[in-house]
Write a structure and sequence with these properties.
The chain has about 40 residues and is mainly α. About 25% of the residues lie in helices and about 0% in strands.
């Protein structure tokens, strides 16, 4: 169920912080939706 609100900058930044370090260097070719479940409802 979509959260029915816009995401806050800290919520988006959390995903960026997860993917930015060298520890995430083995993650490739992914589509990570940070949309509060909106695409699930389509």
């Amino acid at each position: 169920m979509p959260l029915q609100r816009y995401g806050r900058s800290d919520e988006i930044a959390g995903t960026i912080a997860f993917l930015a370090p060298d520890d995430a260097g083995y993650i490739t070719g992914q589509n990570i939706c940070v949309d509060g479940g909106t695409t699930r409802g389509i």
